[in-house]
Amino acid sequence: MTTKAYIKDYPRPQFVRKDWTNLNGEWSFRFDDHNAGEQDNWQEKFTETHKINVPFTYETKMSGIGAEEFHPNVWYSRQVHIPKEAEGQRVILHFQAVDHVAKVWVNGKMAGSHQGGYAAFSFDVTPYLVFGSDNQITVKAEDSDSCTQPRGKQRWTKDNFECFYVQTTGIWQTVWLEYVEEQRLESVKITPDIDRNIVRFDYEVNGVPAAGDLKLEAIVTLKDKPVKRVSLVIDRPCLTVEVDLIHEANGPWKKSLWSPQHPNLYDVEFVLTLNDQVVDRVFSYFGMRKISIEKGKVLLNNVPIYQRLILDQGYWTDSHLTPPSEEALIEDIDRMLEMGYNGVRKHMKIEDARFLYWCDVKGLLVWSEMAATFEFHDRAVEAFTKEWVEIVQQQYNHPSIITWIPFNESWGIASILRDPRQQKFTEGIYHLTKSIDPYRPVITNDGWEHTVSDILTLHDYVETGDGFMKRYSNLEAVLSCETTCNQWKYAFAEGYAYRGQPIIISEYGGIAFQSDKGWGYGHQVSSEEEFMARFEGLTKAIKSVDAIVGYCYTQLTDVQQEINGLLYEDRSPKLPLDKIKKINMA
């Protein structure tokens, strides 16, 4: 169950080139609490005080350091050998994620900088390299405890509190190199259209020559059977081509659609030639699927789908936000499927691209949610908007992603109920997201106080099914904001009203076993029987309301002081998973 060009641990599985070098592993490291490094020229003369295991941050045990106190500036350095035979090629240095500001030098020369802790970025470092020799890569990561930067569940105080955990500072996803030609495919935006039976490729090509025969060919296959082969002459950097996918490669057309039951993926190979010589070869894939909304229902491939989601924060005991391995990502997905969930709400985190790859392959629906800021300020608006655009563009091609969530529970927009500025900010992000991706629903403020939103989502941690039914027996009162959707929040911000959107309970449950070491929602339970009775009562109650078309249970695993997972933080089950599945599938 992999795509044709799958490479284990390859950090960007939707855009694969075979010639790459993984730079994870041991780097030299030091703290810079007084921010003296640049002035003292550490980018040229770096003296280590620690070794660190990249991509694990210094706060984690797997980094080899395990110091949880906050340090605003940290430095990394390592030698990388660049082979002589690579001379004449371009060398691209990639970072999958660095929190929060990254400054990068190669052999003492500034190669570039990037702001935003969750988006991937890269630099062409060719001008700074010595081929056939070792080269020094130095990275400074700047972080802060500011609530105007997107930080998600990362604490901004000395100690953990409520649902906020140890911060993440510096490199926390893969660092890698790839070798490319001047003429290369920079990106491809892949848009399926099942109603017209076509897929659209929006190409961006680097290095289009003033003269010369530059061509790009797309070779589409399904389960190793040929589907279509199309080519076009490249005469400008940005081009679009639509490919008709009516074929007999897998029988009737509908059998080739992507869904949780049948996660069919088309492989596509892009071949760029200059004067009939191959200069670039990129492997990708796509799923033919459609998400739409009609008459209060969410439709997948024009058929209503009931979403059984689980909330997942993506933390591990010894590595925090960084997955300890690709196998750990696969295990989490398998556990969700084993418990009868057909989707995941990835909460307050932009997850490793390999996680999304395996959701594509295994057929797990994904709600992709931005890490929140916690103050409303011009700086927060600017930082949030810039990074959110990068993320939507980078994740666009994943068929598993069916919903975007830029905001959650009014975090960073605390006065949205009445403040027109904050309301307009969410409207702006909604429409900006739609300008990039008009094909997926956008939930503008998940949980409550919605403005413009394609789905109405409500968070409610009422403890019993009877309590849920009492609150939602008069659903119209909740929708009209005559009553709150939980004990204290209204469904809509002032000036906004229900427009017939699908309704999903996108947080509920949060049940915890008795413990003095953490917390869950409501009273803690003392036995498996008590847990299962409460879980079943709540889930059945939600399902019994016809207008509600899905739910999201809190949550997959324990996270530090939050102990309301169905699994412990080490991923061992608290309960028989088949019992959870039976209730979900009933």
UniProtKB/TrEMBL annotation:
GO molecular function: hydrolase activity, hydrolyzing O-glycosyl compounds
GO biological processes: carbohydrate metabolic process
Residue ranges of every copy of the Glycoside hydrolase family 2 immunoglobulin-like beta-sandwich domain listed in the record: 184-289
A Pfam family recorded for this sequence: Glyco_hydro_2_N
Keywords: Glycosidase, Hydrolase
Residue span, Glycosyl hydrolases family 2 sugar binding domain: 22-141
Keyword Hydrolase on entry: yes
Sequence ranges assigned to domain Glycoside hydrolase family 2 catalytic in this UniProt record: 292-582
Gene3D superfamilies: Galactose-binding domain-like, Glycosidases, Immunoglobulins
Keyword Hydrolase appears in the UniProt entry: yes
SUPFAM superfamilies: (Trans)glycosidases, beta-Galactosidase/glucuronidase domain, Galactose-binding domain-like
Protein family according to the UniProt entry: Belongs to the glycosyl hydrolase 2 family.
Full protein name: Beta-glucuronidase
Lineage, opening ranks: Bacteria, Bacillati, Bacillota, Bacilli, Bacillales
